[in-house]
Amino acid sequence: MQITFYGVRGSIPSPGPDTVRYGGNTTCIDVITDNGDRIILDGGTGIRQLGLDMMNSLPLQCSIFITHTHWDHIQGLPFFTPLFVPGNKVDFYGAFDPVYMKDLRTILAQQMEYCYFPIRENELKATLSYTSLKEGDTIQVGSATVTSILLNHPVLNFGYLIEADGKRFFFTGDNETPLNIYKPEDEEYDEYQELIIQRESHIIDFIRGVNCIVIDAQYTKEEYFANKVGWGHGYFESSINFAEKAEIPLVHITHHDPTRTDDQLDAIFKQLTRQGSIPTGMQVTPATEKVTIHL
Amino acid sequence: MGVDQDKLEKLVDQMPTFPQSAQRVMEICADINYSTPELVSVIERDPIITLKVLKLVNSAYFGLSKKITSIKHSVVYVGSNTIKNIAIAITTIGILPKVAQAGISRTDFLTHSLTTAVLAKLIGRSKGVAENELINFYIAGLLHDIGVILTAQLVKEEYKQAIDLARSENIPLHIAEQTKLDFNHADASALLVEKWQFPPALVDCIRNHHRMDQLENPTYMENSVFIANQLSKMMQDDAARISAVEIIPEITQDWLGMPVELVIDTLPDFEEEMQRIKAFMAL
């Protein structure tokens, strides 16, 4: 399995000299199995370049799994060139939105309405399909399977487990480990803590021992506890700790904050190493655009 | 026989106070820095909201692999923001009466109220009203006719006659009420929302919704609810309509700035909002 980052930035694209090493495009990960089956995780702005790279071999077929439909995970899709080419086949998968009662197709088509974009969804030339996933659904994509699990973000967000060629890879999408909403002295504290533990064990059991995880950690611990609790993202230590509990040897931290410069990211990782936050035997690196992981 | 004003006021007094839980859910939802434990406790104290939230979270719309058994469990699983957003939809629909008398179809009544609510909100938005004020447009649309249900409960037989008169003569219900009962439902609706301590502008809007021709300078809310009410009646089929469409006063027509028949075409979100509400109504 070959995993390439095309977008590693959170929230909004942040191009410029300060982000050129790790990259400024929003979330998109390209996964290719040994058989050549292609699974794309999220359609942030990184998917534009991926689409161009894919155009040398037509017609093509790919499956795009959307973790959730916040802008930074879908805004590149109207610029994904393969959608405009007859003969291509693109299958979309993602959650239904139960708050606004919209399915994936409606949400994606709305970002291509005429006031936002000159070409409408029903004018795209590729053959498209849309599947609303339920938690735990497993989709067969050629030689691979992709299974969804609900994580914690302020909209339904699926993490995806990809299994192929005897390897297992997991991408969280956006995720914040839930905190107890009560204070330790409140009588509801223990009951709520028990629910959090149950939930976490369910997720840890699901991903235990995967070969590689790409995990959201947008914030430093200080930023997180200052005013980002409940925003739906992890901080470096929480995400590393999560991966450690799931016994995952290879960890790529993603969803870099748009204000984070390359130098700051380097400094943070040096500090994490120095303070012993990275467990022995675990390799932790910031996800970097155009870097490929071979499993 | 007319409506005895004392009796009506007594009936309003006997009506439950506006469900505190609903009011708190709305307050919490309007506050970006709301407290999750408070939201949880407000929902948990209201068995009906609790039941409906759990029903939705456990439905195919969410497609979860585990059964969610409590509000706390739902917050751990799908997050407080999502629970907050579905609670507001469930709560506002839940304010509407559960039964109707004097031959009024509850389904038709609910559909008319919700359609008026959604349209009032969207018309207000199209006129540049700030998002945080639109909730009052929505509530005014939702509750403008609640006095119909209230009055029908008080004087069942006479009210049925008023409805029959409105239907047979094809006149607005409030005129038939005036003839048969010397009273109109807008006043009853206003009495109730006043008791529920809604803002004075909202109470006035409801009280005035059949008196537009007497207003010198109707507010945006009054204009929006009035137009929404007429549009909603225009959308009903003959069997469902118990009140004729009214003539739009000139001042409101000028404010609207287009033929009323064209309004729906300028509100692209309407169908989608209605579908969403119907899904919540079905819970």
Automatic annotation (TrEMBL), chain A:
Q: Work out whether the entry's keyword set contains Magnesium.
A: no
What Gene3D superfamilies does the record tag this protein with? Ribonuclease Z/Hydroxyacylglutathione hydrolase-like
Looking up Pfam families in the UniProt record yields: Lactamase_B_2 (PF12706)
Keywords, in A-Z order:
Hydrolase
Ranges for domain Metallo-beta-lactamase come to 25-210
Molecular function per GO: hydrolase activity
Q: What's the protein called, per UniProt?
A: MBL fold metallo-hydrolase
UniProtKB/TrEMBL annotation, chain B:
Record's protein name: HDOD domain-containing protein
Query: In this protein, which residues make up the domain named HDOD?
Result: 15-212
Name the species this protein comes from. Answer: Sedimenticola selenatireducens
Name the Gene3D superfamilies on file. Answer: Hypothetical protein af1432 (1.10.3210.10)
Query: Which PROSITE patterns does UniProt cross-reference here?
Result: HDOD
Coiled-coil boundaries: none
CDD domains given in the database record? HDc
